[in-house]
Amino acid sequence: MLEMKFREIINKRHSIREYENRKIPKKILKRLVITATKAPSAKNEQPWRFFIVSSKKRRDYLAEMLWEEFSKLRDIEKLTAKLDKIAIKFYKNIGNAQNLIFVFRETRKNPPAYQYFNDIAGVSGAIENLMLGAVEQGLGTCWIGTFKSKENEIKKLLNTPRNYELLAAIAIGYPKKGSKPLIREKRKLSEVLKFI
Ligand SMILES: Cc1cc2nc3c(=O)[nH]c(=O)nc-3n(C[C@H](O)[C@H](O)[C@H](O)COP(=O)(O)O)c2cc1C
User: Fold this and answer.
1) pLDDT tens across 105-140, in order?
2) Domains (range + CATH), the chain
3) Rounded to the nearest whole angstrom, what is the distance from the C-alpha of residue 144 to the centroid of ligand 1?
């Protein structure tokens, strides 16, 4: 694959919610996690821990879990008709994503008060690296915060150590051909930036 320019990768990344029925080679998944781990972290503690789910059986179980959560959230969030339609399609089978990457932080004993925030910041940076690396590989991703409320079930399924805390779930796969991603509008620069 031709190398993409950084700006091109940034502009090409959108949350993808429909995927092809095509497996991602393990080598690529490993490379993406290496890309993730190049991120900065407070005191270089690298609190991130990754678990990648591939098996159909586990993915189906997770999809059921997600659908249950979405059904609860749907009433609270009152999505627009367009978003609701997209969400229904996505949550029913996680858009047919071939892999799910669960990202945890490893909690440590007697943490200083700021450690939680530092860990979230570090893990988020790692995830962004992974998502941009995915674009470079012709892959799409979607961060799924909704899984957080199923943390205990997920930890059990993945058999994680007890001191791991779930911070994110990322659906990943080859974007479905012909399916256009939802392009979300970004705020104007004047709304988010001030030079003083
Ligand atoms: C912390 C976080 C949680 C998210 N959770 C969900 C989710 O549960 N379901 C979903 O469909 N998208 C989820 N997203 C994706 C956002 O909806 C998406 O990033 C946003 O609408 C902007 O669109 P873009 O990623 O295409 O730029 C999440 C994103 C972040 C950063």
Assistant:
1) 999 999 999 999 999 999 999 999 999 999 999 999
2) 6-175 (3.40.109.10)
3) 6
